[in-house]
Amino acid sequence: MSAVLLLNGPNLGILGRREPEIYGTDTLADIEAAVAEEVSGRGWKVLSVQHDCEGELVGAIHAHSGSTVGAIVNPGALMIAGWSLRDALASYAPPWVEVHLSNVWAREQFRHESVIAPLASGVVVGLGAFGYRLAAQALMHLCPAQP
User: Fold this and answer.
1) CB-side neighbour CA atoms (13 Å) of 145
2) Which of 13, 55, 71, 107 has the highest CB neighbour number within 10 Å of its CB?
């Protein structure tokens, strides 16, 4: 069975109670279940990793680069200056989609540039937890079904 790497960065482990007016009320477990539902028809499972430490996220990318069909990545604030995360994603061969719950361009100026986005197959922003479902659909589009 193939797997999708669902990678979430700093502060995303407290979704549901972290600034719900910005990030919504869905928890990370809710998001994991939604992504699993989206990809189940393809026979894919979800390998979910959330960590507040950039080095742990880098390690997860390296550990799973050869065993996953693609990734959904919410780097959180690491989008701004997560250079080691960026470099790890540069070496991740399968397609991956960057996701942000809020519309980063409608927020503070420092959130308007991602060092990671130029490497992504696509970016989904501002659609809340539903953005993860769209990212899962995008991965299925980017990864041909195996006969």
Assistant:
1) 7
2) 71
